[in-house]
Amino acid sequence: MTKEKPSQPQLPPTSAIESSSNRAFDSWFAYPLRVQPHHTDYAGVVWHGSYIAWMEEARIECLRSIGINYADLVALGCDLPVVELSVRYHRSIHLGTTVVVKTRMADVTGVRINWDYAIVSTDGQELYVTAKVTLVALDRDRGKIMRHLPPSVKDALAKISALHNN
What we know:
- With 166 residues, the chain is of the alpha+beta class.
- The protein has a single domain, classed as Hotdog Thioesterase (Thiol Ester Dehydrase, Chain A).
- It contains four helices and eight strands; from the N terminus they run H-E-H-H-E-E-E-E-E-E-E-H.
- The protein has helices at 15-21, 48-65, 70-75, 151-164; strands at residues 29-34, 78-79, 82-89, 98-109, 112-121, 127-136, 138-139, 144-145.
- A hairpin with a 5-residue loop joins strand 5 and strand 6.
- InterPro entries: 4-hydroxybenzoyl-CoA_TE, HB-CoA_thioesterase_AS, HotDog_dom_sf, YbgC/YbaW.
């Protein structure tokens, strides 16, 4: 009787990543980019922190695509800092590769705004990264978390939700 080798250990999925991984990526905002040398380590593999910058760029471009300039939100006295971040790295990306960072606003609960992300190959066949980010509305003048989203911010987020949930 031969004993099979145990399979390589697998990380248990987190609930944040599990929910992102199981969704179809067709209703998301797509932000294409090509991996540049400054995104990588000496071996030409994307440095893990680059993915986080790409996600922020995609979120800002998603807002801009529907006419919401992030600077305008800041001018309203509302900042949206990241308070929670969960990232699952599925496979590495190499220098020169073109990928698509997909993002969508998952939900808004009070002053918490949740975004989902998937970084995929341009043909959608390879999944490189999934992530979930939570932002909170912060009153810039007082430096404190707001009790309620300002009406203009709430309206802007409703516009995103309507576009991406259709």
